Amino acid sequence: MLLFRQQEKIFILLSRPLLLICSVCFTILLIFYALRAPDSINFTAKNVGYVPSNSSSSLHPPAKEDEKCNLFKGRWIWDEKGPLYTNFSCKTIPDKKNCFLHERMDKDFVHWRWKPDECELPVFDPRSFLSIARGKTMAFIGDSVSRNQMESLLCLLSTEETPKDVYKDAKDRFRTWHFPHYNFTMMSLWSRFLVTSSQTIVNGSVTGGFDVHLDKVDDNWAPKLPVVDYAIFSDAQWFLRQNYLYEGGNLIGCIYCQEPNVTDLGPGLAIQRAFRTAFKYINDCKNCFGILTLLRTISPSQFENGTWKTGGSCVRTSPLAPEEIQDAGGADMEYRNIQMAEIESARKRGEKIGNRFDVLDVTGAMLMRPDGHPGLHWRNKKKGYSDCVHWCLPGPIDVWNEFLLEVLRRQSHFPLRSR
Length: 419
Ligand SMILES: *[C@@H]1O[C@H](CO)[C@@H](O)[C@H](O)[C@H]1NC(C)=O
Ligand SMILES: *[C@@H]1O[C@H](CO)[C@@H](O)[C@H](O)[C@H]1NC(C)=O
Ligand SMILES: *[C@@H]1O[C@H](CO)[C@@H](O)[C@H](O)[C@H]1NC(C)=O
Ligand SMILES: *[C@@H]1O[C@H](CO)[C@@H](O)[C@H](O)[C@H]1NC(C)=O
Ligand SMILES: *[C@@H]1O[C@H](CO)[C@@H](O)[C@H](O)[C@H]1NC(C)=O
Ligand SMILES: *[C@@H]1O[C@H](CO)[C@@H](O)[C@H](O)[C@H]1NC(C)=O
Known about the structure:
Layout: H1 2-36, E1 74-78, E2 112-116, H2 126-132, E3 137-142, H3 144-158, E4 164-168, E5 175-179, E6 184-190, E7 195-202, E8 205-217, E9 230-233, E10 243-247, E11 250-255, H4 266-284, E12 292-296, H5 330-350, E13 356-360, H6 363-367, H7 398-411
Parallel strand pairs: 3-6, 3-9, 8-10, 9-12, 12-13
Antiparallel strand pairs: 1-2, 4-5, 5-6, 7-8, 10-11
Bound molecules: 2-acetamido-2-deoxy-beta-D-glucopyranose (6 copies).
Residues 202-203 line the site of one 2-acetamido-2-deoxy-beta-D-glucopyranose.
Main location: membrane
Protein name: Xyloglucan O-acetyltransferase 3-like
GO molecular function: O-acetyltransferase activity
């Protein structure tokens, strides 16, 4: 017994420094992972498919229980309360998205809330948003659907502070707003493809398609990056037309061109290369500082019974259930998966140098909202074309900014590296 006690004592004496060393090591490891692996959402390539899995990697810092929840897997549920702003309270709704102004009669579509399967998505709180974003600059980089998200955010934030209109270019493609009290700057930077493009000209006239240089980053946004803290990238619709694709200045193929001597590589490859080029630029950027880059995944266009120019329309007045999504999302899901894979590889590279990458994975949620587009209600009655690409304001697109706030909140546990 005594012997046993002594052995125990010796063991304790020996083990104390060992314990100390171990716990020091463990703490260092924890700090290391907290600094190096700050992504809050798991979006590994194997999770692609419209129902991303909710498994969380053991490398991630301990997240609060509700922060492990996959925000993007869920369904739309009826919400009596309705939208957070109206076409009266928000003075900046662009005419083309002010659907009620253009005689949209059904109002149910503003009464659905997104409900993630495993948690609640907090209602947008402008004060929380502006507190997190205080002193920061946010850029929405992409096409008119990207702009659509900024317009929604502008309406959501205006209830807290009226922003100053700081800059607008002649074509109104670049726009900057500033919230003086919070010193928050928000801008939209127009870019069709994220990479350089010019209109394809055949026999001296434009074709509607583009020559796209997949390895050359678009100057519309790249030079602005050093002043940006949050960069939200999107794009997809312009890829889905007859374009010619270049790398190293050489034609490598096309999208939908049906020419015997040019390979049709399809939109997927072009989307992949363009996002790869954009994210590579961020990780290679020498005078950029700890940017949080967000991918907003493809927003589906939802024409039924035709295309936009053959009388296609979007006349539904209620959302779909997840099971009702046609063809499990089809090509939209395919492009979304390609985008997700690109940001995941950028994240792996970028986190080593203090850059962060995360997602607003809106594709699944929006595939359920064919009722959320302007349709014919966009001051274009004469031509009779429907807009089934953009989204009414207020409308389901507002959830993108609820996702955005929640992602910023989760990421804010890991402050951006200061300039
Ligand atoms: C997600 O989590 C729920 C409950 O925690 C579990 O039942 C489900 O199997 C998980 N799904 C996946 C794909 O891991
Ligand atoms: C708001 O929508 C209503 C229809 O719901 C319309 O009559 C009104 O003109 C709109 N107001 C503004 C300022 O757009
Ligand atoms: C506002 O934020 C910018 C960075 O976006 C910073 O350079 C500037 O000093 C800030 N101004 C004030 C008054 O804090
Ligand atoms: C361009 O012009 C040539 C000669 O006039 C004609 O043969 C060809 O079909 C035209 N190509 C297109 C795409 O219109
Ligand atoms: C493909 O063929 C057309 C018609 O023969 C020609 O005008 C065009 O220059 C060719 N394109 C390439 C890349 O060779
Ligand atoms: C498509 O056309 C069918 C047959 O004309 C019609 O019943 C249906 O309502 C249309 N759907 C939409 C979304 O326009």
